[in-house]
């Protein structure tokens, strides 16, 4: 489960242990809905509380050879990025414009989800882009 967070048209991405950029998110816990998972994971990984919006995309991602995961990416509404801080499970966090996504070590599904949220009418709401 992944969340797409935009601030003024720029997406926040996290640097993982494979030296790739990714969206914040993680695995479902028992009894949790996908939206609840995204809200919890974004809070754990970046600190801001988010409202979880529409499902943007779904795909099977080969994390490592022979290891696949179903990814659901949701658009997220963020009220305040001021207190954002990434967790120790990532090597860094940064904001990237849509025009920068193609030059990053970023799986195609994540870039597709970011672009989908940037085009979505709801993204012009509380997130302030």
Automatic annotation (TrEMBL):
One MF term in GO for this entry?
hydrolase activity
Leader sequence segment: none
Tell me where the transmembrane regions lie.
Answer: none
List, for all copies, the residue spans of the domain called Nudix hydrolase: 1-120
One Pfam entry name: NUDIX
User: By its UniProt entry, which InterPro entries does this protein fall under?
Assistant: Nudix_hydrolase, NUDIX_hydrolase-like_dom_sf, NUDIX_hydrolase_CS, NUDIX_hydrolase_dom
The entry sums up its family as follows: Belongs to the Nudix hydrolase family.
Q: Which domain of life is it from?
A: Bacteria
Cofactor names from the entry are: Mg(2+)
This chain's protein is named Nudix hydrolase domain-containing protein
What UniProt keywords apply to this chain's record, in alphabetical order?
Hydrolase
């Amino acid at each position: 489960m992944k969340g797409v967070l935009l601030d003024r048209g720029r997406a926040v991405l996290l640097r993982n242990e494979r030296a790739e950029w990714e969206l914040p998110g993680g695995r479902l816990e028992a009894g949790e809905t996908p939206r609840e998972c995204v809200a919890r994971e974004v809070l754990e990984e970046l600190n801001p509380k988010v409202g979880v919006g529409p499902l943007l995309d779904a795909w099977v991602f080969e994390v490592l050879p022979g290891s696949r995961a179903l990814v659901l990416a949701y658009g997220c509404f963020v009220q305040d990025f001021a207190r954002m801080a990434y967790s120790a499970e990532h090597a860094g966090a940064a904001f990237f414009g849509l025009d920068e996504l193609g030059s990053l070590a970023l799986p195609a599904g994540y870039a597709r989800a970011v672009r989908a949220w940037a085009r979505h009418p709801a993204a012009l709401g509380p997130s302030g882009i």
